[in-house]
């Protein structure tokens, strides 16, 4: 079944000469879409010097189009090893390297790939030794991750952490990321009083620094700081605030760095809180919400982005309090994508387009909306202001308020959008995330802008490596 059998056999002979400890076999590989193929694969260890010399267990799957397609590479940790999620390894143990991304026959070879793998692992060790209690928990996590990798995730199953105990109606939330935005979210949620417990997952390397250290010093009640994903178990809302700080050169590289970061986060938090709502505040929010949805395998209703909630609240405030406009401010929304392409819209009020009063009302709304948008342009999105917006959304979810917010949700099927993209639209939020979308006035210009945003976001997503 291998298209280039002779070339493949020749290369594997070279691998065997260099690494005689590798064992070869033919097994069934299950892809993310559920399709399966019988593929050649080999397992073994590679020597990595990190102070001492360590033997890192790996497994490489050889695609049937080899050597014109790169292998699929995984770490194969034992039950006493933990995976150190980083820029080259995700929580599944899958390995991502520049060599794989730039694979080109005949320049690229498996021997060359393994050499780069060793070099990168010597910079950042991908595995660490677990204690006996951690090993048992890690074994369970690896089993779950294997199911994700093989497309077998059962979303109806429940978390079985710490003996399988659940916390009933206990309102626990987790904030992932201890940067300025993450800490702002913790403080805002704590101040709102909606959560019984707030966990801050600090994924940065080293000891607590900056704001995280201050949180520990002043010990806010019901706030826990941890570096262990298991601390997030049974959260009702998981808030994603992390952004990659890599040395990316282009906008696409920046987003890809965030995607790589999320590959190591989303499967783990999804495992520990299978029934949670994922609330994404990372940038760009539309793309990272889509990425979170794909990596978590959660239903679309339980993966939302902060979207234009902050802009909408400001917009409504400006209309009602600064401009004192004679229009229904509560029916005014900012929708679409964050940034310059956001657009004002209005709740459907069934005004006939050909009635003079209706035309006058629409003209009045448009004029005042333009003035409000000019005022809105001068308002930046500082960490503390986004944190307040996140706390507002979290409050609506935890208390099942059925309040309408403009949040990033799957827009496929809306305004003739046919692609899987997330855009900010008015949605009723409850304990299970998005309950329903609110109908907006039909406006050809608004629809055109939404379709344009959807097209550009979809094109960008197509260039990402998930």
> How many individual β-strands?
17
Helix and strand succession? HEEEEEHHEHEHEHEEHHEHEHEEHHEEEH
Q: What would CATH call the homologous superfamily of the largest domain?
A: Lactate dehydrogenase/glycoside hydrolase, family 4, C-terminal
Give me the side-by-side strand order of the main sheet. 9-8-7-10-11-12
How many strands, which pairing sense, and closed or not: the largest β-sheet?
6 strands, parallel
CATH topology of the largest domain: the name is L-2-Hydroxyisocaproate Dehydrogenase, Chain A, domain 2
Strand-residue proportion: 15-25%
Number of domains: 3
- The proportion of residues forming helix, as a percent range, comes to 25-40%
Q: What would CATH call the class of the largest domain?
A: Alpha Beta
CATH architecture of the largest domain: Alpha-Beta Complex
Radius of gyration, in Å, reads 25 Å
Which spans of ≥5 residues are poorly predicted at pLDDT below 50?
148-169, 350-354, 356-360
The average pLDDT score comes to: 82
What is the terminal separation in angstroms? 27 Å
Shape, per Cα inertia axes: globular
Number of helices: 13
- Helix- and strand-based class? alpha/beta
GO biological process, one term: lactate metabolic process
Pfam family, one: UEV
InterPro entries: L-lactate/malate_DH, Lactate/malate_DH_C, Lactate/malate_DH_N, Lactate_DH/Glyco_Ohase_4_C, NAD(P)-bd_dom_sf, UBQ-conjugating_enzyme/RWD, UEV_N
Catalytic activity: (S)-lactate + NAD(+) = pyruvate + NADH + H(+)
């Amino acid at each position: 079944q291998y298209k280039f059998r002779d070339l493949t056999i020749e290369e594997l002979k070279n691998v065997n000469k260099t690494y005689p400890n590798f064992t070869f076999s033919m097994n069934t590989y299950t892809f993310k879409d559920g399709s399966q193929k019988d593929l050649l694969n080999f397992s073994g260890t590679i020597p990595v010097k990190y102070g001492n010399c360590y033997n890192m267990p790996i497994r490489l799957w050889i695609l049937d189009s080899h050597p014109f397609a790169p292998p699929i590479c995984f770490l194969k940790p034992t039950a006493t090893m933990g995976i150190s999620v980083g820029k080259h390894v995700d929580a599944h143990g899958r390995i991502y390297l520049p060599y794989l991304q730039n694979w080109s026959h005949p320049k690229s070879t498996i021997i060359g790939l393994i050499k780069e793998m060793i070099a990168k692992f010597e910079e950042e060790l991908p595995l660490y030794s677990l204690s006996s209690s951690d090993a048992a928990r890690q074994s369970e996590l690896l089993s779950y991750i294997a199911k994700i990798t093989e497309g077998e995730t059962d979303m109806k199953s429940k978390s079985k952490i710490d003996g399988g105990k659940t916390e009933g109606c206990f309102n626990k939330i987790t904030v992932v990321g201890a940067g300025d935005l993450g800490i702002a979210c913790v403080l805002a949620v704590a101040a709102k009083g909606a959560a019984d417990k707030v966990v801050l997952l600090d994924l940065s390397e080293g000891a607590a620094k900056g704001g995280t250290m201050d949180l520990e010093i002043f010990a806010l009640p019901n706030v826990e700081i941890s570096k262990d994903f298991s601390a997030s178990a049974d959260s009702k809302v998981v808030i994603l605030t992390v952004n990659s700080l890599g040395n990316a050169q282009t906008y696409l590289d920046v987003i890809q760095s965030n995607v790589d970061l999320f590959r190591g986060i989303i499967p783990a938090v999804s495992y520990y809180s299978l029934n949670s709502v994922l609330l994404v505040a990372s940038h760009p929010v539309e793309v990272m919400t889509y990425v979170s949805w794909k990596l978590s395998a959660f239903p679309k209703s339980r993966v939302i982005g902060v979207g234009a909630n902050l802009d909408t609240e400001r917009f409504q405030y400006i209309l009602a309090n600064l401009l004192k406009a004679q229009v229904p401010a509560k029916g005014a929304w900012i929708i679409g994508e964050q940034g310059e392409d956001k657009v004002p819209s209005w709740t459907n009020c069934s005004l006939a387009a050909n009635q003079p009063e209706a035309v006058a009302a629409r003209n009045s709304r448009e004029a005042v909306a333009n003035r409000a948008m000019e005022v809105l342009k001068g308002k930046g999105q500082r960490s503390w202001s986004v944190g307040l917006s996140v706390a507002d959304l979290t409050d609506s979810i935890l208390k099942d308020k059925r309040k309408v917010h403009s949040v990033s949700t799957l827009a496929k099927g809306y305004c003739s959008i046919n692609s899987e993209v997330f855009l900010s639209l008015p949605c009723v939020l409850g304990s299970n995330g998005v309950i329903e979308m609110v109908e907006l006035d039909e406006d050809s210009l608004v629809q055109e802008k939404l379709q344009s945003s959807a097209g550009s976001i979809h094109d960008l997503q197509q260039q990402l490596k998930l």
